[in-house]
Design a protein that fits this description.
mainly beta, 58% strand
Length: 120
């Protein structure tokens, strides 16, 4: 069974920075895409950024130039560096991975979510 564990959320002032991490663990698996979604109170979950095994990235328009997604394939870990944070970035951030694992086939896996709050 593959599991994703997130860390790095918290409270930050507007204009500040945070770095989220998400590590995949388990046995005999391969990760295609990894990425981050977020869900603000009363809103639908939305894609923030994705990165594939070859380090190609995609971003939601509202975070371009402020957020950077990166990935360490040796550590099965994806990162989200968030700079110039705004109140509108407040949400629960979820890590996901498009993963194929022995006996489980290929499917999406999700982390438990980490709260990011931008407030003065």
């Amino acid at each position: 069974q593959v599991q994703l564990a997130e860390s790095g959320g918290g409270l930050v002032q507007p204009g500040g920075s945070l770095r989220l991490s998400c590590a995949a663990s388990g046995r005999n698996f391969y990760i295609y895409d990894m990425g981050w979604y977020r869900q603000a109170a009363g809103r639908q979950r939305e894609l923030v950024a994705t990165i594939n095994y070859d380090q190609n990235t995609k971003y939601q328009d509202s975070v371009k130039g402020r957020f950077t997604i990166s990935r360490d394939n040796d550590k099965n870990t994806v990162y989200l560096q968030m700079n110039t944070l705004q109140a509108e970035d407040t949400a629960v951030y979820y890590c996901y991975g498009d993963i194929i694992a022995m006996a489980a086939g290929r499917r999406d896996y999700w982390g438990q979510g980490t709260q990011v709050t931008v407030s003065s």
